[in-house]
Structure formats: structure tokens, C-alpha cells
Amino acid sequence: MCKYLIIVNVMGHRDFRFYLKKIRERKGLTIRALAKYSDVSNSYISQIERGIRFPSADILKKLAGPLGLTDEFIMREAGYITKSPKPKAIKPGSKEEIKLLVRESFGRYPLSEEAFEEVAEYIGFKLEEHKIQEAKKADK
Asked: Domain 12-78 has what CATH class?
């Protein structure tokens, strides 16, 4: 059962199909690769991109991760969610920024939440280590 309220499909079949193809290609994914990572058949993805089918909210959620998108973002792009959340400022070097960068970098790979958290934590640790080394160099 999808937790999102379906309001209106604002974008429509034609616009979303181009959007999906553009994002997939930007991520360097073939239809088959996206199908493999998302557990959505390649024929279904092809039909979406050709405008024959329009994905349900559940299918969009499956496609979001491998495309490096959040569920909310892809649902909004498809027109299922009409209200845009207010963007919040992210402090450079913060845990939120690191998580965002990891999500963008590893979006095409099927990482579990646990693996995602470990990668983000490791990068945060290395970033802090680098800052300490830079501070020591500046003191010399």
C-alpha cells in the first residue's frame, strides 16, 4: 500500500516519459540496468519512456533509488505530489550534506540503508580527519 495521497497527475504521460529517460541517461544507466537495480521489468520501463504506460506510485518508489532520487522527489516530478517541500539550508560539511552527496554518488547502486549509513559515516570521519591534518599544517 502506498503511503502517498494521489492528487493529480500534473506533468502527464508525455512529459514524465522524457524526464525519466533524461535522468536514466544522465546516470549512465541502460533500460536493462535500471530494470535490474529497481526490480521493474525492462519492458515496463520502456513502455513508460515511450508513453504507453504511466507508472504507479509503487513503481516510482522502486525507480527512485537507482536513479539517485528520493521517493518524494520522483513522486512530485510525476505529478503525484503537488506541494513542494520548503528547501532547507544544508551546512557545508555537515552530516546532512555528506548523506546528500553519498545519495547522489551512489544512487545508481542498490545500497541498503545500513550500507548507505556506513559509507556516509566513513566519509564524515575522513573529512574530519582531513580538517585536523589541515589545522596541524596551518599551526606549523
From this structure: mainly alpha
